[in-house]
## 1
Amino acid sequence: MRLFRAALLLGAALLPLSAQAQKAPAPSAAAKPLDFTERTLANGLKVYAIHDAGTSNVSVQVWYDVGSKDDPAGRSGFAHMFEHLMFKATRNLVSEQMDRLTEDVGGYNNASTNDDYTNYYEVVPANHLQRLLFAEADRMASLVVEPKSFASERDVVKEELRLRTLAQPYGKLFSIYFPEISYTKHPYARPGIGSLENLESATIDDVRAFHAAYYRPDNAILVVSGNFDPKQLDAWVDQYFAGIKKPDRPIPRVTVTEPERTKATHVTVYEQNTPLPAVMISYPVPPDNNADMPALTVLNAVLSQGESSRLYETLVYRDQLAQSAETYLDTKQGPGNLAVFAILAGGKTADDGETALRREVARLRDAPVTAAELSEAKNEILTGVLRGRETAEGKASALAASVIINGDPRASDRQIAEIAQVTAADLQRVAKKYLRDERSAAIHYLPAEGAPAGAKGDTVTIASTVQVAPLVAPDDVAIVTPAPADQRLAPPVAGTPIAAAIPSPQEIKLANGLRVLVVEKHDLPLITATLVAPGGGAADPADRAGVGSLTADLLTKGTKTRSATQIAAQIEALGGSIGSDASWDGSSIAVTVKSDQAAPALTILADVAQNPAFADEEIERARAQAIDGVTVTIKDPAQLAGLVAGRAVFGGQPYGHALSGTPDSLKAIKAADIRSAYARTWLPGQASLILVGDITPAAARTLAERNFGSWKAPATTGPLTQSVLFTPASGPRVIVVDMPGAGQAGVVVARPGIARRDPSFYPASVANTVLGGGFSSRLNQEIRIKRGLAYGAGSSLSARREPGSISARTQTKNPTAPETVAIMVAEMKRLGTEPVPANELEPRKATLIGDFGRGVETTDGIADVLGDYVVQDVPLSELKAFTTKVSAVDPAAVQAAAASLLDPSRASIIVVGDSKDFIDALRKDYPNLELIPASALKLDTATLK
């Protein structure tokens, strides 16, 4: 059920039940149906509109009914590669102009390729709607495919394959092996990312034929959601889309039927860069529009949604068998799959994992779920749906998926209603029908270094019986060329801007010093509650890296009156989850619930914050999980490069260690360290409660007084803030970490930065956005767009309570790491030596402003920004001042900030990858580089050795 797959990842809620068993709460009322209009043009284009006057933005989405299942024979990955080419030139638009029309005015654009569809989506200020309709129509009707862009984007897609599949631990398991073991006949068996060989064999004529076959108005839908005049929208759609010709030929369709699997399959593979064993079991399920899908959706939530789900509670929490245990309900137009999988804990085996996963599936077949489990799952789904509909883009996506996958724009709302009617008997029935052992396909994904002598594992590939059709070029494939400059149609001018509504927080102070910040937002019945306090990873003792993070994790793992499992069960019964986290400068506990559950939610939040138990068994369980998590992290070249960069920039100072710790530092942490970290952080006089959503200030005060008014600081408490010396490392370093067999090289160029309160923050933010903020930034232009060296490249300004860092980052194939380093260094230097032209600066400022504006559209987004302000000691007035201060930055200020903060002579360079492919070339530019084997890397020391 496509609507809920993303929604299930977003739930958050609480319930103040006692420790005893309680009657299951009734499922919440259904979400309000989507309110839309629909019409079909004469050429077959279906048009849907969702009017929302409460936003200053508009989302424009065009979904084509063509995806990876339609890849021609010998061309797997083709639909995805074509998606990239749709951002190049058209008859009237120059290459990358879609970015000019979106990013450069404060919006954004993106696209994705699914097995069944390819979608293109943008969000822009509402006064730019006409321009986007013009552009989408132009690339539907007159895409230009020429050799240079074709070759460049093919290289970019190769880097995306290396990034997502070859470099990441478990990348091949999910993107390659999962589809290959799940189908024997249907073209869904072919990985959407494709293969390097198939990508290389594609020709420019193939691309043109593919566009002619599938990119046509009667194979597409247009969805517009946001603030617009409905009559004007109809006129513009007619003006730009109605004239696009509908081809007089049928659309190629996949009609293959996947046979029923009647005998279980099992394979074992050994892969490099695999830190822990993993196991996956795939079960076939019917198409998304099948009548059994609501029950399967609820079953999926029972299995894996939240910490009271069956997989987490048994495999991860109780038995400590797995580092993570999850499901993936992959539903489609055709037959899909329910995958259950686990990444095992250190020292555990895939055999143990498979046995445990099958045991939990069997429980669903053998007995009905409880009333509490059923209600919890339904409420989690509903909360996720509401959160997904907080924005114009979210509403548009929900509607579009319903049309493309189910053929019915009302499918998502119908599915919500059907889920409310699902019974425990329904779950048991579908479990018996679809989740039988003989219908399963299992894979053990094991570390190569642990393979028995002589063992090679099984060969997993696309079955020879999979049926795919060749690409048949239509007879009338048009070769479009750019219009001459004097004949090119320019995009229409933008309309009158609609002012964005930036929320105004109201502040209340309780007698005990607790600060309460309230933002009213009544468009949906949601509320986010976040409790924040200064005191995060920067306060970790030098030999106890990760204690702040581990302490935060433990806050939700038991109080004086509630166990960890009771906290999870009581909260998730309302449809969500509670989360606690530590940043460098602070710690937080957050929850999002339906607003009618705010009172019980705050009761649990208060208990977790004020009465953590820190039981020994919970400490050991959390420690083991943290160690396993870090073990996975340091096998990823990009993530490891970031950790090394922290040490290179800060040395042994705060901000230099790994925020989540290392295996050695985590093992050294004692219970007393955890209690000390809690005591210096969670005090009412330095904490802030942030309430955002469907709530009034008066109601917020009542909830805060009731739940936090009696919170007192211990009499023995020391100073609320600690004075810590923050100084960068003594000098820059060039470090290569050798990771043999790495699928890509992670590259970071990093140097000391500034504090968030620094007067140069806004010029520095603009300079960073010019350098590496967004698709049109200089780094991405040079590394991805012009040279195809990476899937993406960017930079970040990490301005914290004390001076942080500024860094440029990317991932590239190993041999091109030196070239990429040279580009990053050159662009950092150039920004400080010459002014940024106005025609580049203004769009980059718009990008920064637009990103900020979209970030405060949702309840949790607003709470996150305010929480950062609190722990970084920034005035709340910055919320409304942000746009004005960014707009005021001029070229001289940007150049001055860049000269001071981006000078690469003070930057450290870190490359993590298979060094044999690049070390000699890099040494020519940096003869004093340090080469450290990944196996010998010591993240707990400033020297790394």
## 2
Amino acid sequence: MTAPGRRSSTFTRLLRHGFTDPSAAERLLDSVELAPMRNDPVLLEALGATADPDLALHGLVRLLEVQPGPLAQRELLDTVIAAKPLRDRLLGVLGASAALADHLARHPKDWQALVTYEPRDLHPGVAEFERGLAEAGDPVALRVAYRRCLLSIAARDVCGTTDVAETAAELADLATATLRAALAIARAAAPDDAASCRLAVIAMGKCGGHELNYVSDVDVIFVGEAAEGADEGKALRSATKLASHMMRICSETTVEGSIWPVDANLRPEGRNGPLVRTLSSHLAYYQRWAKTWEFQALLKARPVAGDIELGDEYVTALEPLVWKAAERENFVPDVQKMRRRVVENIPVAEVDRELKLGPGGLRDVEFAVQLLQLVHGRADASLRSGTTLDALQALAAGGYVGRADAVQLDSAYRFLRTMEHRIQLYRLRRTHLVPNDEADQRRIGRSLGLRTDPVAELNREWKRHSSVVRRLHEKLFYRPLLDAVAQLAPGEARLSPEAARERMVALGYADPASALRHLEALASGVSRKAAIQRTLLPVLLGWFADSADPDAGLLNFRKVSDALGKTPWYLRLLRDEGAAAENLARVLSAGRLAPDLLMRAPEAVALLGDGDGGGLVPRSHAHLEQEILAAVGRAGGAVQAVTAARGVRRRELFRTAAADIVGSYGTETQPAEADQGALVDRVGGAISDLTAATLAGTLRAVVREGWGEELPTRFAIIGMGRFGGHELGYGSDADVLFVHEPREGVEERVAADAANKVVSEMRRLLQIPSADPPLLIDADLRPEGKSGPLVRSLKSYEAYYRRWSLVWESQALLRAEVVAGDEDLGRRFIELIDPLRYPAEGLGDDAVREIRRLKARMESERMPRGADPKLHTKLGPGGLSDVEWTVQLFQLHQGWAEPGLRTTRTREALAAACAAGLISGEDAATLDEAWVLATRVRNAVMLVRGRAGDTFPSHGRELAAVGRYLGYGPGHVGDMLDAYRRTARRARGVVEELFYGA
């Protein structure tokens, strides 16, 4: 008897053998059923070798309890004691699968299915499984026979007799035999239907690929034809009945549960299409309507049941179409987009536990392999395998995938699939989620041979293999391109030039020969620079391919690398800074403007990193003005000073453009900015602040060179139009007014001459041809327009506005804001014009009619010839002009009474009008959406083309790039144009009502 407080030696031994509840185990070992082998050390050793010794022992006792009598119990015990193969198989299954233990408890004699241990039993095929199911004449019997076969598969799996690929193949063969048995039952139930048609069952997905899970939907497609002499319509109806019955036999729940769902949703038109089609109907659909993913799915098509000859005809007919899929427009983006959509649909709470669909999961490997098969399988029939691991091996053998990468992916895929098998085997439930429960993780870890600390080791190995997949699955596509051109050590199979060209075309490169030359220039050689480039380029190529112009992205990257390649920090930045490489790839492939700005001073690439360079956050107006004035102060003369100011402007324009592109495209870690208005405000504010600071610096430089520290007249610059409204775009001129006031004792003429010289010199210096973009100053909104003096004194403005001011000038002054120069003078100018732009009691009827007349005239006279008005962002219906004139009418009418309307900014004024009840929330939202979209389009056009434009580009690639910036994927420019027209049309309806009073 064990002394109180001391544990028995049995208790200790049980702990040592992996039992987690030794007390319960002791009681089970003391049960009557186990009396003959209670003290047999072999039993404990065998239990300790299982995934879950507690579960195995409990299952064994249950199995003994349900044996029909003492002789049956003795037979089972004797076999367990004497036959090691049976002992390992039986206890291995009982320790890994509670569901199969339940099956054995319901069917006590089925343990004998594990006794046979002949060579043919080690790797059974379809024929052996068909024999195992042969006596099943109804759905219930079929389920029992299916699980009896499943027992033997699971036993070989958990004992290590078969590896994960062999297990998956056996499960697919068992599924094939089961589909045949189910179809035979359906045929027997409806012999007339069976006689009138030919029906082929095509396995798809993992069953078709000979790599099935323990519990998975079995994907199928049905092909039907009329039997000789039968009517086709009647035959298809009969085939549909047989197919439906076969699906129910496998899927429906009975007293023995179900087998697995049979899923026919991969058929043409999915759930909406007919369940059974003729071969010609299938062929017509795939020739005309099928999407890229449907050809990807056909990679795994395999006839498994019914009329195999018809099934072979189906595969033969569709095979040429499958291998032409890579020639489809936007092929690679379509496949990658589908993969991203899968990840996006995973519930947030599950994404970190998702073994199959999550980042670094099984689907990443499968998608990458299938993508490569579709690109290169056209020319290389050795790649046409439906089995992922076989295809991966063939890709490596052909040089389409690096051998080292293939080995790592093979190992990761096998580990993740084995994990998936063990998770599903426990309850025979369809799941791909790693359980949270520690006991479940312990069982899974032990089943994989991780015995020291199963939970910690399992999680460590899982994360390691997932990170390998994450790192390699995209690189897999691009790495061999470099090996094909990099002239590295011999011995490794490589892509042929033709295969490399095919892959570049599939990625969307219009000039694959030039692209491969760029890769060769970047990656060849044994230098450290070339080695780092070979590390970076596989990922960069993927990001370039995600743009509308991969060729431009790669060319621009070569230019930047040529300019900075010898700079030690450049490649280090791209390699080590998390965001820098992706940000650079986005910027270089998004259009012309940002790369042009960068090429003029490539060191600005440092802004794209995460480090101390300030990143992509816009600088404040005060910071910009301080930097520019300091640079002007250090310069020797006005030309040098303004050159320095323009250099700062170029760098900050690049920062703004890069931030806009990255925010619009999104990155792998940061989704695209959802608030389009925030992006517009950020760009408008940043460029307006930068323009104001540049003008302030230029003014300081001109005054210092011509007059020293003080100009003989006070001088202020008033921003107008989009400049005054903080809404400048990349291609906007700076609309301004110039105002001066002679200092005490200075003659009016002298002061005016000085002010005019300042303006003339500022305009000249800001437009001198150089590496920096010019800043054009437009003063056409001044009194009398181009006919009036360029600069006026404050008194002259006062006299003019008192006597001659027209209503359009009051409207223009709504945007007036001091941007540079003498603050006090600027403040007094604003005080002068406030009564004009916010007239007491609002506008009279004549003034309102005049504004409407001017607007209608502008729409008819200023629209460019040949332009589509519905797509003109400035003058078209629902465009910028419509929204701005409507808002400005509110300001002129009610600004005197509503302080919120006294702002130069369109969106602020619109929000204030809504808050004041002048416009409904719905109408305000409609106008705001249209204004933001039109502004985004104008910004996109400038970013893409490098020159300003008010309408969508006509060139296909440029239009696609605008779409990409606006969030539309490849092939969706039509959706973009439709969305613009729809948004503008709704806005025009509001304008007709509020502005024109319709």
